[in-house]
Design goal:
The protein is α+β, with helices and mostly antiparallel strands. The chain has a domain of 146 residues: Pnp Oxidase, Chain A, CATH 2.30.110. The protein is built from six helices and eight strands; from the N terminus they run βαβββββαβααβαα. Strands 1, 2, 3, 4, 5, 6, 7 and 8 form an eight-stranded antiparallel β-sheet that branches. Helix 5 packs antiparallel against helix 6. It is elongated, with a radius of gyration of 20 Å. The mean pLDDT is 93.
Length: 215
């Protein structure tokens, strides 16, 4: 990941918190000089073997067959992102020196994969993923709500994956290199759009300004 120092995030707790919030990953592997990718929800765990990130794919997805052969794997978690209009920067009005850009959060987890075909592992994973995703909902759905035999049938159609992470990196590109007036102008501009994703980025920027997640 290209991450200039002012954008780089290296604190493990911040990175893991973001992974827990984003959850959906693009999992990329490169077997035999080719590229394969899958999009799947994943859950991070600290284990006795270090950090692992778990998910599952359909049995028909060939990506899982690369597991166990030391093929490098990369899970990409894309967080809040939004376009930054140059007119939101006071320096544009003062000097004209302003261009469009994009603010975003991204985390890369590098490692290698192992696959899981064991129904016990898969059921444990599905219960955990469901409980995490359904938490706080009224009439939250549980795996046990499904008819007898239905989940067992579905489990036969998936394969679990564990990414054993050996490197974790992140970037919070929120124009930290701009003067405060520009940063505050962008926060106001993003908020004024009323767009949920833009307002989410504005909240990330506010957190940086308040020192909540600043480096």
């Amino acid at each position: 990941m290209y991450a200039p120092k002012q954008f780089r995030e290296e604190r493990r707790d911040v990175l893991l918190s973001a992974i827990g919030s984003i959850r959906l990953a693009a999992l990329v592997v490169s077997p035999d000089n080719s590229l394969q990718a899958a999009h799947l929800p994943m859950i991070a765990h600290e284990s006795g073997d270090g950090l692992v990130i778990e998910g599952h794919v359909a049995r028909g997805n060939p990506l899982w067959r690369t597991a166990g052969d030391a093929t490098p794997a990369l899970a990409i978690f894309q967080g809040p992102q939004a376009y930054v209009h140059p007119g939101w920067l006071p320096t544009k009005r003062e000097t004209g020196k302003a261009v469009p850009t994009w603010n975003y959060v991204a985390i890369h987890a590098h490692g290698h994969l192992t696959a899981h075909d064991d129904p016990t592992w898969l059921l444990r994973h599905l219960h955990e993923l469901t409980q995490l995703t359904e938490a706080g909902r009224q009439e939250a759905w549980a795996v046990s709500d499904a008819p007898d035999g239905y989940i067992d049938q579905l489990v036969r159609g998936i394969v679990g994956l564990t990414l054993h992470v050996d490197r974790l990196e992140g970037t919070w590109k929120m124009i930290q290199h701009h003067p405060e007036t520009n940063r505050l102008g962008v926060i106001d501009g993003l908020t004024s759009t009323g767009e949920p994703t833009a307002m989410e980025v504005a909240n990330v920027m506010r957190g940086l300004e308040e020192g909540k997640t600043a480096r």
